[in-house]
Amino acid sequence: MPVAEFQKFMTDLKHEENGGKFWKHRWITKVDGRYKDGKKEYKIECEPAPSCGKYLLHWWRGMSEETFEMRKKECKKKGMDMTHKQYCTLPCGEKKFQAVWLYQD
To answer: Are 74 and 86 in contact (CB under 8 A)?
Structure first.
């Protein structure tokens, strides 16, 4: 979905009829981006979160290659594993990265 719709969708999940607890029992497993018809679009996939243990999840979209490399180093220092990565190439040739990192205790 286009960026503005994606941002609204993510915000709306916090205010659903379930009392805004959509994210309490789910986590993002994938975030993918693409450039279509002159616009950036994103989609996510979610799964139920583990019911035991602690976990920490970080995900970013639309990162430059430099930012992506920086995030990889930061997350590795925190003991997080990259569970998903993807990139799309803009018409100008620039790559934009999306990734998910997970720490599970």
So the answer is: no
Number of domains in the chain: 1
Provide the pLDDT for residue 16.
Answer: 59
Query: For 65, phi and psi rounded to 5 degrees?
Result: -60, -40
pLDDT digits (tens, 9 = 90+) for 2-57: 777 877 777 777 665 556 667 777 888 999 999 888 888 989 898 888 777 777 88
Cα–Cα distance, 59 to 71 (Å, whole number)? 10
Could you write out the DSSP letters of every residue in the chain? Answer: -BHHHHHHHHHHHTTSTTTS-GGGGEEEEEEEEEEETTEEEEEEEEEEPPSSS-EEEEEEEEE-HHHHHHHHHHHHHTTPEEEEEEEEE-TTS-EEEEEEEEEE-
Q: Structural domain of residue 26, as residue ranges?
A: 3-104
